[in-house]
Specification:
elongated, 4 strands, 4-stranded antiparallel beta sheet, alpha+beta, single chain, Chitinase A, domain 3
Length: about 325
């Protein structure tokens, strides 16, 4: 710490903080440092992934007005892949770098009630979070991207946070809401989170039933879930669209697969039902076999009866003979 701040004034999570900082890259092999960027009076929401992770973490341990030098691993600033545009190399066994942050923590305040913000303010914060999400999307940090997009949507959701004024510009918020929900659906699709993808596209289609991106992602999610019968409807809507952005080759391929699988399923279903009913109704051959079996059983029983009669007669004769001999 260069200058201590006001004691016991650390910011809470989800509050709004304002900082200024200079970011340096230090080469540990030569001890040389290079200025990467200078940012002044940057406001962000604490612990909402709006800023470099190293700053987001450090600020929660600083007091209002504090000025400090922060030394950080590269991965806590721009990740293991580095940042080519700023000439920050990726982490490897051949190099040894770290980051130095000259950080000034100016102030923090509680987050405003979204419903009290003007449309311009809501658009500002939603765009800031969306753009941060887009940046992380290009870097394939999908788990953090999801958080950024969800936080962006909070400022755009006029159902959860209705506009206090009768503002005709609400359509701007809805358009941006559709855009971010579509982005969210795409990330869920890449993460194989198909149910969550469907939740996002349903929000889009509620406002724009012919949205091309939403229809394709809906069909793709249903296809991956094996709901081929449900996937057919959005696929056919895409084929009917005159929009040049529709990749009709892909759509046709998916539609053919869906129809083929459904036809195969119905065929198998018929065969199963056929076997079920045929097993309960005896055929003519089965009836002949059953008749012959019954005849054999009857003949066997008939023969056994006469055997028992003969044995009984013989027994009676023996008893009678014994009686004659005894009383003779």
């Amino acid at each position: 710490t260069i200058n201590p701040g006001t004691p016991d004034t650390r910011p809470l999570r989800n509050t709004m903080a304002t900082v200024s900082y200079k970011l340096f890259l230090i080469d540990d092999s030569t001890s040389n440092s290079r200025l990467i960027e200078t940012i002044t009076n940057e406001s962000f929401f604490v612990s909402e992934n709006d800023i470099l992770p190293a700053i987001d973490i450090s600020i929660q341990l600083m007091d209002r007005g504090e000025h400090a030098f922060i030394y950080s691993d590269v991965r806590h600033c721009y990740g293991e892949i580095g940042y080519e545009e700023k000439q920050i190399p990726p982490i490897s066994s051949n190099n040894s770098y770290r980051m130095k942050i000259d950080l000034e923590f100016h102030d923090w305040k509680y987050a405003p009630d979204i419903q009290t913000l003007s449309i311009d303010e809501r658009l500002f914060w939603s765009d800031k979070k969306r753009q941060r999400g887009n940046f992380l999307y290009r870097r394939k940090d999908y788990s953090t991207v999801l958080q950024c997009y969800r936080n962006s949507l909070k400022f755009l959701d006029i159902e959860q946070y209705p506009l206090l004024e009768d503002d005709k510009q609400s359509s701007i918020l809805i358009d941006r809401y559709i855009q971010v929900q579509n982005n969210l659906a795409q990330v869920h699709l890449l993460n194989n989170q198909y149910e969550q993808c469907l939740d996002a596209v349903n929000q889009v289609l509620k406002h724009d039933s012919k949205n091309i991106k939403a229809l394709f992602r809906q069909a793709k999610a249903l296809f991956e879930l094996g709901n081929y019968d449900q996937a057919i409807s959005p696929l056919k809507l895409l084929l009917q669209s005159q929009n040049k952005d529709v990749e009709k080759d892909k759509v046709n391929e998916m539609l053919n697969i869906c129809e083929t699988k459904l036809a195969k399923y119905k065929k198998n279903e018929k065969e199963i039902y056929k076997r079920m009913f045929s097993s309960t109704t005896p055929t003519k051959t089965d009836q002949k076999i059953q008749t012959k079996t019954m005849q054999k059983v009857e003949n066997k029983n008939h023969s056994a009866w006469w055997t028992y009669v003969a044995m009984g007669s013989a027994a009676l004769a023996a008893v009678g003979l014994a009686a004659i001999i005894k009383y003779r």
